[in-house]
Amino acid sequence: MPLNLKTYTEHFTNPLYLESGRILEPYDITYETYGELNEDKSNVIVICHALTGSHHCAGVYEGDKKAGWWDNLIGSNKAVDTNKYFVICTNVIGSCFGSTGPMSPRHPSHEPYRYKFPVVTIKDMVKAQRILFDRLGIHSVYAIIGGSMGGMQALQFAISYPNFAKKIISLATTYATQPWAIAFNKIAQEAILKDPDFKNGYYEPQAIKENGLVGMAVGRMAGFISFLSPDSMMKKFDREYRNTDGLYELFGKYQVELFLEYNGYNFTKWFDPLSYLYIIKAINIYDLSRGFDSLNEALSKIKSDLHLISFKSDILFRSSEMMEISESLDKIGNKNHTYIEIESDYGHDAFLVEVDKFEKQLVEILEG
Q1: Which residues are the active-site residues?
Q2: Could you give the 3-state DSSP secondary structure of residue 193?
Q3: Which portions of the chain are predicted below pLDDT 50?
């Protein structure tokens, strides 16, 4: 069966009341669907994307070589089987792939918001998605699945909208962003802000697309270090040196350096720097217990079956952080949750790359 990939943008004129007390109006949400919605709308699976992800999580656009970021997981006869499920993935508010973000025109003018865009939180992103689903006549879903920042959204759905999803699967994430992860984000923030080509946020988007942004590339390189692990770097690059460079050339390069450079600079041509700053802020201030007396009180709201999946070598959101969620759920007597740690030496990005290590568990959860 074909994937039946469709892309839409919905426009909302009602105000979106944000956690900060500010309002966003009007706003757009871009989203993608795969598979067919069944008659009673009981086969919906929501996919939540990570920091630099988008609504395009599977399939290939016409004339494009690169498949969606979770294409190895979603599709006909894959773990999230589009022959069975109707899959929907939205681009979060604040991002730069069609949903309203800092470079969107600020109504009623055509000038972009830039710094006038309000700080949005994970809770706001989830609220906007919920409003979209209501408009689409989807008032409950079979499952929500997300990794990293997507896992944060999945957990937030479980707490903010306890009756919305039957099953929630959260991978490679945390209950509150810890200082280690905030520190990596700080490097990215500083590097962007101090780059003269960033022009204090008043850059021309086209110029960035064409020339990239050195500061953002450097910040992203730090990010890549946190997404991998010492073992995966060793496996991927070893101590391999570029064979055209002399060992005693000051700027001769190891393969790991070439990887960081290539991916860092490439990234700046397709992701907006202000969006990056706003989304890392949302990640930094994410804390499931905000607004509650404790994490336990927040978790006591959960009614969905909750499945937590961590990866052994993840240094960004460590297994112990996800285990803490599981232990808290045990303490408050929640019997509808599972926790597994996947044996992996890949690091944080294992949730994107090593799908074969957890797809069996995923299928069991969805079919169980």
Answers
A1: 148, 314, 348
A2: helix
A3: none
